[in-house]
Structure formats: C-alpha cells, structure tokens
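// run 5 | inverse folding | seed 20
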C-alpha cells in the first residue's frame, strides 16, 4: 500500500489538469465544504460491514462496485472510471479520497446503473474518457474494458465510437470543478480493515480481485477504512500482510475476492495472522515458502540416527551445516530441522502392552528449546507399535503448542493386535491418518497457531493404505509424504518413482539419505534433482 500511496502523491501534480482543471472561485479545493455551499444532503454515508465479510464476484468491475456498496450506504456524488488502467485509477483516486466518495467501474458486469440508484447518486465524475458500456441506460453493464487500450479522450474526434452510457437521474460530468460541494462521511470507518489482493493486474490470467485492487483501495480509503494489501489468497502466507494486520484495526473486516474463501475460513486465518507469530523461513503456511533439511534421531542415542550423536547445541550447528549446501538449490528459504523420535518401537510389549516406548517431554525439551532458540523447525516422530496414534500425539501437546513443532507418523512401526516389531512391515489406513490430521488441525486452530507439518514416512505402497483418501487439503495441516527407503541408488530411485506415482495430487514429497545404509549416498544436488522437487530432505 505504501507504494500505491507514493504513486498517488506523485500523480497529484501530473493529473491536476484532469481532476482539478477549470476550478473557479480562487482555485478552491473541490472537497471544500465552502465550495458552492455544501449541504448535508450531499454528504456520503458509510457503514461497517459484518465482523468478517467476503465480497464475491467474477469480474473486476463487479468486485469493485460490490465493495463500494458494502462500504457506502449513500453517495450523492460518485466517481466513475471507464477502465482499471493505472493512470485512470490514480486520477479517480485523488478525487474520491478528497471528497470521501466511492469509485465505480463501468462495464464488465459492474451493473453501474443499479449501484448508482442504490447509492442515491445524482452526480458522477467520469474519468478515463468514453465509457465502454452499452448505450442502453436500462441494460446491465456487461462489456469488458481493455486496460491496455489508449485513453478514449485522445481518440480521433471524427470516430464513430458508441456514445457513453447515461444513467437515469444521474448527471455525468468530466471535470471535478463541475461537481457540487460535498463533505467527507461524518463517521469514517476507522475500525474497519479492507483486504485487497495485489499482483500483476495486466497478466492474462490475473485474478479479477487483483485487477480491481486499485479501485477498491480508493473506495476503502475514501470511506476511512484501513487498506491491507495481500499478495496471496491466504493472508497467513504473506509475511508483509501478517505484519500489517497486527497494527490494523481489529473491528470489522472486508475481503474483496472469492479467492479469500468463506468468511468462516477467513476469520480463522485472520486470527492466526494477527498473532504475528511466523514459522522459520517466514509466513504461517508451510508450503509453498520453504524447504526442510533435517537431522533424524533420538536424543542421546547414537544407534537411532545422527541427531543423538551430539548434544543440543552441537546438533543445531550440525543441522545448519548440513542444510547450508541446499540454500543455492532452492528458490525458497531452507530451514534446518530436527526430526526427533518421540516414541520408539520396542521389541517387548512393555507395561502398557503397546510395543512402543514413549519419551517423556522432559527428555525432548532440551532439543526442542535449542532448535527454537536457533530458528529451526522440529518434527516429533511417532513409532506407535500397537498404540493409538492420536493418543500418542496427545502426550506431546505442550511441545506441539510451539509454532515451530510439527508431527510425523512412521507406518513401518504401526502394528495390529497380533503383530510385533521387526517381524513385518506395518501400515496405517487413511482413516487412522485422517484421525490424526483432524486432531492436529483442531488443536492448531484452537490455539491460533501457524500451519503444522505432518510427515508420513513410506517406502512401500502398502504402508499407506487407501492413500487417495488421505486428507491433504486441511487448512491447518500440511501433509508431506517422505520417501524413507535405504540402499542402492537404483533401488531408491525405483521406490521414489512408485511413491510419486501413487501419491495424492499436489502433495509435498520428501527424501531421506542414510549415512551408513546407503552405499552411495546422494549429494545435495543429486538429492534435489528429482521430480517433483523434494521439499524435505532428512539425514539418518
């Protein structure tokens, strides 16, 4: 938004002839209440939307005009733009913000006649030359303006272009000094925030909300609301938006564009964004936005992975050193990570009979604390034996309450009632995995935490049964399937190919390197050179 404000400020001097040309009476500001003798009848009125509202629409004009209707209940004076080209919007913005009136877009399904009638508009300033709408004043506005076309005001006067539309009861003027005097809304929306999508408005596939962004910003500012620019549909994935939302008003919120999701979904996302807590690497959603490079193991045990070969401080240093070569191989931040075995499959049933030894939180806490202090991510790995996986995860809620701590399930060690470890390869059903996802999602949502990473280890297709039924689009949990095979490079490549072919569409993938069990362990460049690119690489 700061960039847009700078553009507007610079444009004031440039577009003065368009907006303020011809002013009489000593060059009075058209927003001055003394100009022509303003009356309360010409003052716009605004309203705060519901606590969280989403403006729907399929066209830029439709979204911009619906946003104006959501913020203004009355606007005797309004500004019309004939396109969403930057120079046109800048000119309109100057006047709209000075007068405290909305900006409407003609054409492209904006239904301007209906909007003007609902707002009680009697006078409108048209900016941008001849409007592209149909000449029939009673017809809905359905034409699509070409933002790249030259300004119609510079066209050949002898051309036979269709006449600009007129609207019943509305006087259209082409200069700001022709507008009647008005005053800004008496009760501006100082506790309202408006989310506006940013991006390349000229792209062929641009979201209509992006194309409408400049117009919506002008209308929102004119109403007294705070505009928050969001680069992505999910504000949790935009570090700048997260920062802006921390200082934005906490009253009502209006989001413009269907890509923001339902009001219920957006309400949850905004609550998380307002905490300001971000994941290592930035933002509050796991993917896209980062890749993980992890050390795997159990604290204090050299036989269960490299993470146990040194103390917490040395493990942090080693994790950073292992992750460093990957920085140049990704175009997103590479996050050093600890994957800590929290529950270890056991040869004996134990007192609880579940063939799984659960570590105490106090045993894991030093590693988690060291990782957190150093900006690392942590994954708690469950080897459940015969135990219920949700019940095991619940043992570590105090650790999972930290924003940088996720979860992993190791189906190899999930047993039925008649199985014991090391005598067969275990498996989990989609129903069992989804139960964990549901629990983790609810836990995350209730605590207003950033998304959690859930890793599913796999080196045989049978380990994840009914894999296509695993929920991979939960709003609070990002699922990654981790190719966990060891051995010769050709065997690992075959395993990778099979896992990728069977994985749910779009799910993130990971790769594991073994220092001892891989005869020729891949180097970082070889590891990353897979399709799709692994977003988690771990070392055991």
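// decoded
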């Amino acid at each position: 938004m700061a960039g847009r404000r700078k553009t507007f400020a610079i444009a004031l001097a440039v577009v003065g002839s368009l907006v303020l040309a011809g002013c009489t009476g000593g060059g009075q500001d058209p927003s001055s209440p003394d100009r022509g003798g303003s009356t309360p009848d010409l003052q716009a009125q605004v309203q705060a939307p519901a606590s969280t509202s989403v403006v729907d629409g399929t066209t830029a004009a439709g979204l911009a005009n619906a946003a104006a209707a959501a913020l203004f209940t009355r606007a005797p004076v309004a500004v019309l733009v004939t396109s969403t080209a930057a120079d046109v919007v800048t000119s309109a913005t100057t006047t709209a913000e000075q007068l405290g009136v909305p900006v409407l877009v003609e054409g492209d399904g904006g239904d301007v006649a209906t909007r003007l009638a609902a707002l009680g508009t009697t006078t409108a300033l048209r900016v941008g030359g001849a409007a592209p709408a149909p000449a029939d004043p009673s017809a809905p506005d359905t034409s699509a303006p070409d933002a790249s076309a030259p300004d119609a005001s510079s066209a050949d006067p002898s051309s036979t272009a269709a006449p600009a539309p007129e609207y019943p009861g509305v006087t259209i003027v082409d200069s700001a000094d022709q507008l009647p005097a008005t005053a800004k809304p008496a009760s501006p929306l100082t506790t309202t925030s408006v989310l506006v999508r940013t991006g390349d408005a000229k792209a062929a596939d641009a979201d209509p909300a992006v194309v409408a962004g400049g117009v919506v910003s002008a209308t929102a500012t004119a109403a007294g609301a705070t505009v928050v620019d969001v680069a992505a549909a999910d504000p949790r994935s935009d570090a700048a938006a997260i920062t802006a939302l921390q200082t934005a008003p906490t009253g009502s919120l209006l989001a413009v564009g269907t890509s923001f999701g339902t009001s219920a979904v957006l309400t949850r996302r905004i609550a998380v964004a307002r905490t300001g807590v971000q994941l290592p690497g930035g933002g509050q959603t796991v993917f896209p936005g980062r890749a993980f490079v992890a050390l795997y193991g159990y604290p204090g045990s050299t036989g269960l992975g490299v993470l146990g070969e040194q103390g917490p401080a040395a493990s942090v240093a080693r994790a950073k050193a292992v992750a460093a070569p990957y920085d140049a191989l990704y175009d997103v931040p590479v996050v050093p990570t600890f994957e800590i075995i929290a529950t270890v499959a056991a040869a004996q049933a134990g007192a609880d009979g579940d063939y799984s030894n659960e570590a105490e939180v106090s045993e894991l806490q030093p590693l988690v604390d060291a990782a957190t202090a150093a900006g690392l991510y942590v994954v708690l790995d469950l080897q459940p034996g015969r135990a219920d996986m949700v019940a095991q995860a619940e043992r570590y809620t105090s650790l999972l309450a930290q924003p940088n701590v996720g979860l992993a399930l190791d189906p190899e060690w999930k047993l039925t009632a008649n199985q014991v470890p090391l005598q067969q390869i275990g498996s989990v059903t989609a129903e069992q995995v989804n139960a964990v996802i549901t629990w983790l999602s609810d836990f995350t949502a209730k605590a207003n935490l950033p998304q959690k990473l859930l890793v599913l280890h796999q080196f045989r297709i049978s380990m994840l049964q009914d894999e296509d039924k695993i929920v991979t689009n939960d709003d609070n949990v990002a699922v990654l399937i981790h190719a966990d095979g060891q051995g010769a490079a050709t065997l690992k490549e075959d395993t990778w190919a099979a896992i990728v072919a069977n994985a749910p569409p779009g799910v993130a993938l990971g790769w594991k390197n073994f220092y001892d069990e891989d005869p020729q362990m891949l180097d970082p460049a070889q590891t990353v050179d897979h399709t799709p690119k692994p977003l988690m690489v771990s070392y055991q």
